[in-house]
Amino acid sequence: MAYNNIKFVNEDGIGILTISRPKALNALNTETVTELNDCVGKIEADESVKVVIITGEGAKSFVAGADIVEMSTKNPVEGRKFGKISQDTFTRIENLPQPVIAAVNGYALGGGCELACACDFRYAAENAKFGQPEVGLGITPGFGGTQRLPRVVGRGYGKEMIFRANMIDAQEAHRIGLVNKVVPQEELMDTCKKVAKEIMGNAPIAVQLAKTAINRGINCDVVTGIAYEDEVFALCFSTEDQKEGMDAFVNKRAKHFQGK
Ligand code: COA
Q1: What's this model's pTM, rounded to 2 decimal places?
Q2: Annotated catalytic residue 31
Q3: Where in the sequence is the signal peptide annotated (predicted)?
């Protein structure tokens, strides 16, 4: 599939996925979400991509939400179809085997905030702004906002953002745990790449299993989550990376993980 509204490059194992529809501040219309879904499917199957960074084109916007112009004429059936492909795409991002970092370079509103929340964690530029403006447009968040946002920031802040439909700045987003770090705009991508490389230095299977355990555990009771952790912990002892990591420690030498 040729992409009109997204870009993807693999920079030495770091997959950089850019939402690129600057004339609409990278708002997500059906075409963009369809391309995103296709691209995420390819990333899923591409073992040469070790970590993914999702960002928006330009210095102003990450993603300014779902496309309001396109949505304005939808009937319930069309609304459901649009919601479904977007939900499926975001869930696919959440469950990618690779860690996914959101590099929030500007407005992350509605679907943009929801996209950021589907990533494993978020770094923001100083000019980033977050919000869920949907109830001000007569709709609820529809791409996971009522579910993922409260799981990231807690129910109180999640409900406040959704009910008020206001915008919060990067510092406030940092204070409530929506983003892990705030950096100057010009340092955002380098900071995310540095963290991506740090992650890539660790045992890939262990990172992937830890991600799965966290994602599964967050959606079930703690006893079931701990039982799942038991299984992935045990599984690690069947990998060459476990032998390598521990042998390197014991023999005081550098480690070289192969993802086996
Ligand atoms: N859907 C469709 N188009 C959008 C959009 C969206 N979510 N967000 C921005 N755009 C378009 C604008 O319509 C405008 O297009 P135009 O030049 O053809 O008129 C262009 O992007 C630039 O946006 P503009 O509003 O002129 O920029 P601004 O700097 O004045 O304001 C925002 C920026 C983000 C505050 C404002 O665009 C906005 O509120 N967007 C909607 C955010 C939203 O509610 N998202 C949730 C949707 S569920």
Answers
A1: 0.97
A2: no
A3: none
Beta-carbon contacts of residue 166 (< 8 Å; ≥ 6 apart): 131
Mean pLDDT, contiguous 10-residue spans, the chain (260 residues) = 97 98 98 98 97 97 97 96 97 98 98 98 98 98 97 98 98 98 98 98 97 95 97 98 97 96
Report the pocket of ligand 1 as residue ranges, CB < 6 Å.
Answer: 24-25, 27, 64-69, 107, 109-110, 133-134, 137
**Residue 170 near residue 125 (C-beta atoms within 8 A):** yes
Task: Give ∠ CA 51-52-54 in degrees, rounded to 5.
Answer: 155
- CATH 3.90.226.10 at 6-200, yes or no: yes
CATH superfamily of 204-250: Lyase 2-enoyl-coa Hydratase, Chain  A, domain 2 (1.10.12.10)
Query: Which of 35, 57, 134, 229 is flagged as catalytic?
Result: 134
Calculate how far, in angstroms, residue 25's C-alpha sits from the geometric centre of ligand 1: 6
